[in-house]
């Protein structure tokens, strides 16, 4: 998606430790009109697939997934929680995810009420790096007996390999911008062609 690539070039900054900071529009301050155009792109890519639910993971995926849902017939959006809460009751699917930005493991929890074998799921997230977050969500779908129809990602860091491993396993991963390399010294960002 050219618009997203240009926005990353214009407003993104490359940090040490393979971190791309795009919090001016994607995952801190939110450009909702951009989210809407991203949702339209995924709707085009996944047209023809039956999607009954969108699944994402807190925190940064939630806003993007909710706007995307408007392009998939307003299907419900479920987000995996990263902490137990007195607000979570009943039976849960639980997995574990190593957080790239927080550098520690979190439980990922989805109530059994909101995901089941009848569901055809689109996974949505802001970033795909090593693929840990998606592995947690896929694990939860497997526990639920739900079908993963596809994966929509805003920014994939291709050089970290998580996306290509998932593609090799047969998942339909649609990343709107794939960063092939980025240099914290010069700030240069190269996208996959
Ligand atoms: O492919 P991966 O290596 O798993 O990296 C991608 C994940 O990392 C971020 O989550 P994180 O827990 O760092 O922060 P968040 O609370 O901003 O979502 C991002 O939102 C993705 O969920
Ligand atoms: O803002 C972010 N920048 C990143 O480089 C990244 N990788 C995973 N998750 C991320 N979030």
Automatic annotation (TrEMBL):
Annotated GO MF terms: xanthine phosphoribosyltransferase activity
InterPro entries in alphabetical order: PRTase_dom, Pur/Pyrimidine_PRTase, Xanthine_PRibTrfase
Catalytically driven reaction(s): XMP + diphosphate = xanthine + 5-phospho-alpha-D-ribose 1-diphosphate
Subunit structure, as described in the record: Homodimer.
Enzyme class name: transferase
Organism: Bifidobacterium phasiani
Family membership: Belongs to the purine/pyrimidine phosphoribosyltransferase family. Xpt subfamily.
Alphabetized UniProt keyword annotations: Cytoplasm, Glycosyltransferase, Purine salvage, Transferase
Compartments in which it is found: Cytoplasm
Binding of 5-phospho-alpha-D-ribose 1-diphosphate, residues: 129-133
Entry EC number(s): 2.4.2.22
Pfam entry (one): Pribosyltran
PANTHER family associated with the record: HYPOXANTHINE/GUANINE PHOSPHORIBOSYLTRANSFERASE, XANTHINE PHOSPHORIBOSYLTRANSFERASE
Principal location listed in the UniProt entry: cytoplasm
Record lineage: Bacteria, Bacillati, Actinomycetota, Actinomycetes, Bifidobacteriales
Protein's name in the database: Xanthine phosphoribosyltransferase
């Amino acid at each position: 998606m050219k618009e997203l690539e240009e926005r990353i070039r214009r407003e993104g900054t490359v940090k040490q430790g393979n971190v791309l900071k795009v919090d001016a529009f994607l995952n801190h301050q939110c450009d909702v009109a951009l989210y809407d155009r991203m949702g339209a792109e995924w709707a085009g890519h996944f047209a023809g697939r039956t999607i009954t639910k969108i699944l994402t993971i807190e925190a940064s995926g939630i806003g993007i997934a909710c706007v995307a849902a408007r392009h998939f017939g307003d299907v419900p959006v479920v987000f995996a929680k990263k902490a137990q809460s007195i607000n979570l009751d009943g039976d849960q699917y639980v997995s574990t995810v190593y957080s790239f930005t927080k550098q520690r493991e979190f439980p990922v929890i989805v109530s059994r009420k909101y995901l089941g074998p009848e569901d055809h799921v689109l996974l949505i997230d802001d970033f795909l790096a090593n693929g840990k977050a998606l592995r947690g969500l896929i694990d939860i779908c497997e526990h639920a007996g739900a079908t993963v129809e596809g994966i929509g990602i805003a920014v994939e860091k291709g050089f970290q390999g998580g996306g290509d491993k998932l593609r090799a396993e047969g998942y339909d991963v649609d990343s709107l911008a794939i960063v092939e390399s980025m240099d914290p010294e010069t700030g240069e960002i190269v996208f996959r062609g």
